[in-house]
Amino acid sequence: MYVDVTIAARIERAEARMMRDLLASLVGSHRAPAAFVRELGAGTATYVRPGSPMNKIIGAGLGEPIDEAALGDLERCLAHHREPVRVELSTLADPRTYAQLAARDYRVIGFENVLACRLATPTPHSAAAIEVQPVTERLLAQFRETTVEAAACPDDTGVPVDTFTRDVIGVAVDDSIQAPAARRYLAYRDGAVAGAASMSIEGDVAVFTGSATLPPHRRHGVQAALLARRLADARAAGAALAIITTAPGTQSQANVMKQGFALVYSRAVLVRGA
Asked: Which domains are assigned to the chain?
């Protein structure tokens, strides 16, 4: 699948919309009253709380440069919170953006991959032994427990940028549960809960998030089933494109590529500060 700067910007904007909606919900519920969203040219900065995986700048350098004054103000604000500034910068961003960040003492700490699938493509069949069900209010606690437990036990494949404690993962999952429009799923293998996943429909882009399989159920088609269900539901909802982000060389990347996703670009992860 070919992606140019225009489509990359569309993908980044979809993720930014998802984050804006989530942060608005977190502020409105008083769960994270200090959370904020700021625009930095084409980029969007989000902050939830100290140490949150959702503190980052996305979409920068696609179409227009980062606004220097706005970036400086953000840097001072995050320094006040003793929080580093994290930029997830697409390989399709204007190369001058890298120079701009290097001049401000940002350093690369790793990479992540963005994969996409056009939803005109038929959904591959998943393992018959895996049942996937939408999460209702009654199952929300089970979804939370499954996601935290699975995410806290990485499969040690690939080159992930970050590692988080169980406590940090738990807070991040509790935050993400506040997303107003997210669709959540549980997968069952032989009647037992085996994995969880979620997605948000942002315009015509389906953003797949939160994929996690419990260790005893790995390598049995759980993620394939969760992907197939979300692809079918995204298509039914009118989305034209599905996207997912993985660490490079992980089993997660292999799983999504088997389901028709293609690597469309990478993001360099740069940080400045504490």
From this structure: 5-113+268-272 (no CATH), 130-265 (3.40.630.30)
